[in-house]
């Protein structure tokens, strides 16, 4: 029996999970509400909140799993990428615990863990599979050949998909994080009402910054044009009125474009690799329009599609635990000298 405690602290969720033989026994997540008032994550405040949360969160995860510290065979943590001050809290905690219990330490890459969250449900993909990971910080298409062998086939060259949602929401005057709100209004709107351009980006890479710029001008001139022209500019009052009267259609049209950018590249990846088991991962996979379009595309092209439950899509330690379990089986441990890294190298 292999029992592992995993800790995730890369951004603004403090999370701990216990997994036994690849089965998640607990997945406790403390979300940090402190950032809402600032319209984004404040790194310094995130580190402080992790310090406050980590002991009670780990304690709760062990209790919910019905596991004592003495039963742990390894301690795992997110090593990279993320906010360095946030990562340090989790790394330091995991090191201390591994040292005290005299058990091995396992370092996990956050983006690999998002992909392997797809192995948590009982019905899961076999290798090889493709995964579209869409979160607030990342947008990647990954070819997963085994639990320890993954290749990034394409990624964003500027903003992440979640950022595209959140920045658009900000332009519309919606609070942070705006992704879920755009989803909500989009469900009531007409996605074909406004037309936003699809960028022509080479290979399997993505770009969302051009879309953001066209939305900015579109709103500034109250829907007259997607490019900047002084004579089209409207007063702030007129812009606000335009948004208020057309919010659902604007959200639906923007969301439809973000989804088509994502899924057209995924379709290309399936064509190029011949791999037809396809997964979604990351916080943006909560988007109802994306989920529907993904499943529909899978049915149309005879793919086998997988989406983890919402709890395992946003940042969570369950995905770190499942990844750590496979690393344990492969004998991939790290020394107590290990350091976190803010950067995303694999
Ligand atoms: O994976 P995640 O929880 O955190 C990161 O690692 O970034 O993803 C958070 C992102 C945010 O940008 C949020 O707006 C977006 O996921 N998101 C959504 C939805 N739910 C969360 N975007 C669109 N529609 C949703 N329903
Ligand atoms: Zn994440």
From TrEMBL:
Annotated EC: 2.3.1.234
Residues the record lists as binding Fe cation: 110, 114, 315
InterPro entries: ATPase_NBD, Gcp-like_dom, KAE1/TsaD, Peptidase_M22_CS, TsaD
Signal sequence bounds: none
CDD domains registered for this protein in UniProt: ASKHA_NBD_TsaD_bac
PROSITE patterns tied to this protein: GLYCOPROTEASE
Gcp-like domain ranges (all copies): 24-321
GO MF term list: iron ion binding; tRNA N(6)-L-threonylcarbamoyladenine synthase activity
Residues reported in the UniProt entry to bind substrate: 133-137, 166, 179, 183, 287
Gene Ontology cellular component list: cytoplasm
Similarity annotation: Belongs to the KAE1 / TsaD family.
Protein name per its UniProtKB record: tRNA N6-adenosine threonylcarbamoyltransferase
Gene that specifies this protein: tsaD
């Amino acid at each position: 029996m292999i029992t592992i405690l995993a800790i995730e602290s890369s951004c603004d969720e403090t999370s701990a999970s216990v997994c036994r033989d690849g089965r998640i026994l607990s997945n406790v997540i403390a979300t940090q509400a402190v950032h809402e008032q600032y319209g984004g994550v404040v790194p310094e405040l995130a580190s402080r909140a992790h310090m406050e949360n980590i002991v009670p969160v780990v304690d709760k995860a062990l209790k919910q799993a019905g596991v004592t510290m003495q039963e742990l065979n390894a301690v795992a943590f997110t090593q990279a990428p993320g906010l360095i001050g946030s990562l340090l809290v989790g790394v330091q905690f995991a090191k201390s615990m591994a040292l005290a219990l005299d058990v091995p330490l396992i370092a996990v890459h956050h983006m690999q863990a998002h992909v392997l969250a797809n192995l948590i449900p009982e019905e899961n993909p076999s290798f090889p599979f493709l995964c579209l990971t869409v979160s607030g910080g990342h947008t990647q298409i990954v070819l997963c050949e085994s639990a320890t062998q993954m290749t990034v086939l394409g990624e964003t060259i500027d903003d992440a998909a979640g950022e595209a949602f959140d920045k658009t929401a900000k332009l519309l005057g919606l609070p942070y994080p705006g992704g879920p709100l755009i989803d909500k209004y989009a469900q009531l709107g007409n996605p074909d009402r406004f037309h936003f351009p699809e960028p022509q980006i080479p290979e399997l890479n993505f770009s969302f910054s051009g879309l953001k710029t066209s939305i900015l001008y579109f709103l500034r001139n109250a829907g007259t044009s997607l490019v900047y022209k002084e004579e089209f500019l409207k007063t702030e009052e007129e812009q606000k009125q335009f948004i208020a009267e057309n919010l659902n259609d604007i959200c639906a049209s923007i969301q439809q474009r973000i989804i088509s950018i994502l899924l057209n590249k995924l379709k290309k990846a399936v064509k190029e690799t011949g791999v037809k088991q396809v997964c979604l991962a990351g916080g943006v996979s909560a988007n109802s329009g994306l989920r529907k379009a993904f499943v529909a595309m899978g049915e149309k092209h005879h793919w086998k599609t997988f989406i983890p439950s919402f709890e395992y899509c946003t940042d969570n330690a369950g995905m770190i635990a499942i990844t750590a379990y496979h690393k344990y089986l492969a004998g991939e441990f790290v020394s107590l000298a290990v350091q976190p890294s803010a950067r995303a190298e694999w």
